[in-house]
Write a structure and sequence with these properties.
Elements lengths: L2 H8 L5 H15 L7 H20 L15 H6 L2 E5 L5 E4 L22 E2 L2 E3 L5 E3 L6 E6 L2 E5 L4 E6 L10 E5 L4 E6 L5 E4 L4 E5 L7 E12 L8 E4 L4 E4 L3 E6 L5 E8 L2 E5 L2 E5 L3 E6 L5 E5 L3 H4 L6 E7 L1 H12 L2 E4 L8 E6 L4 H9 L4 E5 L2 E5 L1
Parallel strand pairs: 3-10, 8-10, 13-14, 23-26
Antiparallel strand pairs: 1-2, 2-24, 4-5, 4-9, 6-7, 7-8, 9-12, 10-11, 11-13, 12-13, 13-16, 14-15, 15-18, 16-17, 17-20, 18-19, 20-21, 22-24, 25-26
Length: 380
Amino acid sequence: MNKEQLKKYNNKTASAEEKRAVETWYETVNGAEAAHTADEAAQLKEVIFNRVKSKIEAEKEVPVLKNRLRISTAFLAKAAVLLLVFSVGAFFYLHKNKPVSFASFIKTKKSTIKPGDNNAVLTLADGSTVILNEVANGQIGQQSGASITKTKSGELVYSFAANTNAKTTAINTISTPKGGQYHLILTDGTNVWLNANSSIKFPAAFTGDNRQVEITGEVYFEVFKNKAKPFIVNTSQSEIKVLGTHFNVNAYDDEAFEKTTLLEGAIELKRGADKALLTPGLQASLSKSSSHIAIKEVDDLDAIIAWKNGYFQFDRADLQSVMRQVSRWYNVSVSYKGPILNKEYSGKIPRKTTAEKLIEMLHYSGINCTIENNQITVKP
C-alpha cells in the first residue's frame, strides 16, 4: 500500500475498487495475527498475570533519562539565531529573534515551583477515590476480578487474579491534575501514559467483543494486539479503532485541534460519517469548527511523545501554545501584559527543570516572564 493510494482514500477521491483495496490492506495489517481461541484467551490471561506478577516482584526504578541535545539541520538552516545551549542539555531558539539585553530580564521573586511528577487519582466503580501518589505500593484493591497494584516504579497495573473469569464490568477512571502524569497497564497488557490534566475511563476487565476506553487531554497508547477484540478509543470528537499499535492522542479542550498521531501499526479514525486510515508517520487533525479530517505527515515523531520521555519539545510553536504546556505541567496560571508576540519557537527542555529555571531559558529566546504566587506573567 503506497501513500498515494492512502491519500486518495482519505481525500475521498478513490474509486470503489481502490477503496476496497485500502480497506482490505488495513484489515490485513491489523489482522496479521490469528484471532485467539477460547483456550488461547484463557492462556493469555495467565501469561499476562504471570508477567505482571514477575514484573512487580523484580521491578526496578525507571532509569533517569540522560540529557540529550538534538538539533534539526533543516530547521537551523532557516533559524536566524541559535541563542543558547544550556549546560543541562536544553536549548531554545527563535525565528527572527532580536537580541535581548539581559538587563531587560525582570527577576522572579524567590520561590520554587517544582515540575510535575507521578500524580493521579483513581476513581473506582463505587465512586470511591484513591490518591495514587499517597497510597503505599502493593495491591490497593480489586475490581471485576482484576487485581489493582501500584508498583515501586510508579505504575498502576491491572491484572487478572488467578482462576478468575469476570462476568461483570466495573468502570474505573484515572485522572491526572495539572502537574501530574501517570503510567497504567490494563488487564489486556495495553500500556497507557497520561500527560498532565488528562483522564482515561476504562473497564477493569474487558468482557465484551471489544476493548473500549474514553479519554480527555493527552494520552499515549501501546495497544496489546488481539484480533478478536479491537481496541477503541473515544474522545469528545472522534473514535479511534485499533487492534495493536502505538499512537498518541492530544485532545485537550483548550487546544484548537484534536490531533492523533500514529507511530506504529495502523488505525481507523472516525468522526461522524467521515473516516480516515493512518499509517505510521501520519497525523489526523480535527477542528472544533469543521467536520473535515485533515491528514499530514509528521517529520519528527519523537517530538510528539517527548512529554512521555521527560521533555518539552516545541516545533515552530506559537507563544500561547508554549505557555499552555508550561501551565499544565507546573500547575500555574498564565497571563499576558501587552501584545502577544507573533513569533515561532522551537527547542527541547527537560520537564524536570524547575519553573524558575525554565523562565530563564525562555528569556534567552525573547520571552520575558515573571513568577509570583503561582502566576506566570508574560511581558513584551
